[in-house]
Amino acid sequence: MQTRRIGDTQVSTIGLGGMPMSIEGRPDEQRSVATIHAALEAGVTLFDTADAYHLTANDVGHNESLIAGAVASYGGDTSDVLIATKGGHLRPGDGSWTLNGSPEYLKQACDASLQRLGVEAIGLYQFHRPDPKVPYADSVGAIRDLLDAGKIRYAGISNANPDQIRLSNEILGGRLVSVQNQFSPAFRSSEPELELCAELGIAFLPWSPLGGITQAGELGSRFAVFAEVAKAHGVSPQQVSLAWALAKAPVVIPIPGSSRPETIRDSVAAADLKLSAEELSRLDAV
Q: Residues 256, 267: contact at Cβ < 8 Å?
């Protein structure tokens, strides 16, 4: 598979988002491990997770442990795998989401993620979502401290606006390597952040690039032009969506969620799908 850059590390053009394997509707562990192994077999080296990808209060970090265990049990070479995780967004166990961006909590969360991932330094650690109760600079300052302490190799942020991207890069001394925001045919409002990342040479990781767990399968029926272009190439509308996102800028690395081997294999094929300028223009017009 082709590669793109996060920091000084080359990663697969398409990553795997682990969230569907750990929240509501999660599959059995055997299928999840098979999905992760299928991704590795297809050349995926970027895996996205978070400590909040779990079901119950006693289940915190389920997806981190799942991915770490599956990568460890894979029979092939995994030396180039980069696992990206996040802290600062919590699930109390009742299906709701809460926030804690305090520096103290983020440092504790990072330590817990280190234990679950079984590494000396987390490949990429990202501040999950701004906490309105905590100054943004304080939260990112904690990420800087973790970077300086060697507990994380790379620092990123998620769900950020352009001002927060610039501020984070300043606080991190120019060491911000990634921004993870929602971006898909149905959610285009992160285009300013994507453009800024392209300008600064920062990786942009679209989450829910196919529209989310409940709507990914309906992408072709919701957006006819994606289905039309897919038919012309003999591929799925989901592949077209990922190829369209990749064409936006060389810094874009989509991380589609998957819980089945066949869907991650289909997503990975998007890296080799070439769309014409006319097709991209039609897709942009949606």
A: yes
Region label for 151, one of left (φ > 0), alpha (ψ between -120 and 50) or beta (otherwise)? alpha
Average pLDDT over residues 92-96: 82
One of 53, 105, 125, 136 is an active-site residue; which one? 53
Instruction: List, in order of start, the domains of the chain with CATH numbers.
Output: 3-284 (3.20.20.100)
First to last CA, the chain: 29
Look up the pTM and report it: 0.97
Is the pLDDT confidence value at 59 over 90?
A: yes
Does residue 57 have a pLDDT over 90? no
Q: What is the mean pLDDT of the chain?
A: 97
**Residue 53 annotated as catalytic:** yes
